[in-house]
Design a protein that fits this description.
The structure is a single chain. The longest helix has 24 residues, at 78-101. It is globular and about 60 Å long. The chain has 16 helices and three strands. Among the domains are: 1-74 and 133-162, no CATH class; 78-124 and 256-318, no CATH class. A three-stranded mixed sheet has the order 1-3-2, with helices on one face. It is mostly helical and 320 residues long.
């Protein structure tokens, strides 16, 4: 049994709509996206992976508020996000606070603020409720050749979420989805058209290579990928070989230009930072962080030297 490779006509038909020259209406893009969803479900069925429903897609003619290069995303839920933050986001944030601002913030402090901070940030990023499974963002229009494989990637996230696979291995999900995406594309893993930052390469391509080591590329590859014992081995190999580098790369990303752009958007547009925007001071900055759900963080740093931390956030206002 060989899975069907997407035909040239399928990509060609997408190019006519998503070529970046003449953009169809959102409803037309969504209709064609649903066609790609149905084709992807057929691809999964050939590997013995069945879905009980047809995932719904919505196209948003704007950029993801905090990740402008994002083509698509699914909402993995607060429980998954909390676990991923515990294993990666919090350690990387603590390193970033120490190296960039000279602040000592414990993992326990960061985790104590997660639920409230996540809820406020999520409502800022997604002010409207969308009863859909996959969100497509404007950059997908200019990346026609990636459209079908992006749908496959996101649908695999949905499958892992519905099968409770995400919670047991939250740091390998981009790699597992990239492996599945490349299985669909019939292309080597190194050809995956992702942002080739060091972090992206680790999380997407290097983890996908780990997946391939354990599941292969034969007709039973996806069934092996969802096997709990094999999944545990992949997860263990990730922590042995890649996790330290991923944490370090994530802490570096927190200080890069893309993250600065995200911080700027938060400070300039999130209502909780209005006091700091209107009257910048260390006091108003801490009050704004408290308003954004980071009370434990504020308590932990209020007696530390905040000069670098304050200068950074003032620069976000002044450079805008």
């Amino acid at each position: 049994m060989n899975p069907r490779k997407p035909t040239a006509d399928e990509y060609a038909s997408l190019m006519k709509v998503f070529g970046g020259v003449e953009i169809s209406s959102s409803s037309d893009i969504e209709a064609r996206a649903q066609g790609s969803v149905r084709a992807a479900l057929g691809f999964f069925a050939e590997f013995g992976i069945e879905f009980e429903y047809e995932p719904r897609v919505k196209y948003v003619d704007s950029f993801h508020p905090l990740n402008p290069s994002a083509l698509a995303n699914v909402d993995c839920g607060v429980d998954f996000s909390r676990e991923q933050y515990r294993l990666l986001g919090a350690p990387a944030s603590a390193l970033n606070y120490a190296y960039k601002f000279g602040l000592e913030v414990s993992l326990e402090t960061l985790m104590a603020d997660f639920d409230l901070g996540y809820a406020m940030l999520h409502s800022f990023i997604f002010p409207e409720s969308h009863d859909v499974d996959i969100m497509l963002w404007r950059p997908i229009v200019d990346n026609a050749s990636q459209f079908n494989s992006t749908i496959v990637h996101e649908i695999w996230h949905l499958y892992e979420r519905s099968s409770d696979l995400m919670m047991s291995s939250p740091l390998i999900i981009e790699g597992t989805a990239t492996f599945v995406e490349n299985l669909y594309r019939f292309e080597p893993l190194d050809s995956t058209p992702v942002d080739c930052s060091f972090l992206s390469r680790l999380q997407y391509i290097e983890v996908a290579k780990l997946v391939k080591e354990f599941v292969g590329c034969e007709s039973d590859a996806l069934r092996r990928l969802v096997d709990p014992l094999i999944r545990e081995k992949i997860n263990g190999a990730y922590f042995d070989r890649l996790h330290h580098d991923v944490v370090m790369a994530q802490s570096y990303i927190f200080g890069c230009e893309d993250m600065r752009a995200a911080d700027t958007k938060i400070v300039l547009e999130m209502p909780q930072y209005e006091l700091f925007r209107n009257s910048p001071s260390i006091s108003s900055l801490l009050d704004s962080f408290s308003a954004a759900g980071m009370n434990h963080f504020v308590s932990a740093v209020s007696n530390q030297d905040l000069s670098l931390f304050y200068e950074y956030h003032v620069s976000l206002i002044n450079d805008s």
